[in-house]
Design brief:
It is a single chain. By secondary structure, the chain is an alpha+beta fold. It contains seven helices and eight strands. The radius of gyration is 64 Å and the shape is elongated. The termini are far apart. One of its GO terms (cellular component) is U2-type catalytic step 1 spliceosome. Belongs to the CWC16 family. YJU2 subfamily.
Length: 307
């Protein structure tokens, strides 16, 4: 058949054509077809170690697998050769998982995505079965309750074994505790004795360590009046208790020369006569209020005199 002959729509059949006279063509039962395919997954050749990645194109031979079907559907096998060492590699269809299965000549590489999809599919199938099948739910609850009971039984058994094997001697425990306390007290006493010897409070000539008469030091309370008195108490305190400050000689003479003038009850033009050097005035007043009063009287008379 030429290239132009295959494109025609009709063919010529002579009038004496008889199809029964044509010889029969013997077709083998499991015939192989050469087709163009791509690698369905990443693989590694077992002969030379060549890596063949998913999507690489090959001229492969396809055949139908004998005596192997899935729900009445045929399974196909593919043959191709390694591009490096020309070793034959085969794989076939996996209709159950909607995938391809590696069969011979190579090793399928790890695919995390495929494992995740398979795990999710298995989990969804198990959940669906548990939700729709009451017997599965009952069986699961029974297994869980049985497992809990077995765990409790094992725990109780371990407790009983520990109780039987435990031999506690309380007297020995108390004696060990007393020994440790006595050792701590003895060590503390030795440390204090060594410290006192280093400070010179212990006599080295005595055969036994005993304390010499140590000086007794008593701490006296703080007697500062400024710290003890409150601010209100300082303001309200009696000033008479304070000592009178010593006056200078000149101030005493001048104090005796000053005369106290009384207010006149008559007209404003009348003034009190000066008595000259009068008798020395009384000593400094005992209270600060009296001194302030005398100064007030003196000031008022001087203002009247100026008028």
């Amino acid at each position: 058949m030429t290239g132009t002959e295959r494109k025609v729509l009709n063919k010529y059949y002579p009038p004496d054509f008889d199809p029964r006279k044509l010889p029969k063509v013997s077709v083998p039962r499991n015939r192989q077809y050469v087709i163009r395919v791509m690698a369905p997954f990443n693989m590694r050749c077992n002969t030379c170690g060549e890596y063949i990645y998913k999507g690489k194109k090959f001229n492969a031979r396809r055949e139908t697998v004998e005596d192997e079907t899935y729900l009445g559907l045929p399974i196909f096998r593919f043959y191709f050769r390694c591009p490096q060492c020309l070793a034959e590699i085969t794989f076939k269809t996996d209709l159950k998982n909607c995938d391809y299965a590696q069969e011979h000549g190579s090793t399928r590489l790890f695919e995390a995505e495929r494992l995740i999809r398979e795990k999710e599919a298995n989990e969804r199938a198990a959940e669906e079965e548990e939700r729709t099948n009451p017997m599965t739910m009952l069986e699961k609850r029974t297994k869980m309750s049985r497992f809990e009971m077995e765990a409790l039984d094992r725990l109780e058994e371990l407790k009983e074994i520990n109780k039987r094997q435990a031999n506690v001697n309380y007297d020995l425990m108390l004696s060990e505790t007393r020994k440790s306390e006595f050792e701590e007290l003895r060590q503390q006493h030795e440390e204090e004795t060594a410290l006192l010897r280093a400070m010179g409070f212990l006599s080295g000539d005595l055969p036994s360590d005993r304390l010499v008469n140590l000086p007794v030091i008593k701490r006296l309370p703080d007697t500062d009046s400024d710290d003890n008195l409150k601010p209100q108490e300082i303001l309200t305190a009696d000033v008479t208790t304070q000592k009178r400050p010593k006056l200078s000689r000149q101030r005493e003479v001048l104090q005796g020369a000053v005369a106290v003038r009384k207010k006149s009850t008559g007209t404003t033009g009348r003034r009190a006569e000066s008595l000259g050097v009068s008798e020395p005035a009384e000593r400094y007043a005992t209270t600060s209020s009296a001194g302030l009063g005398m100064l007030g009287n003196y000031g008022s008379s001087s203002s009247e005199e100026s008028t």
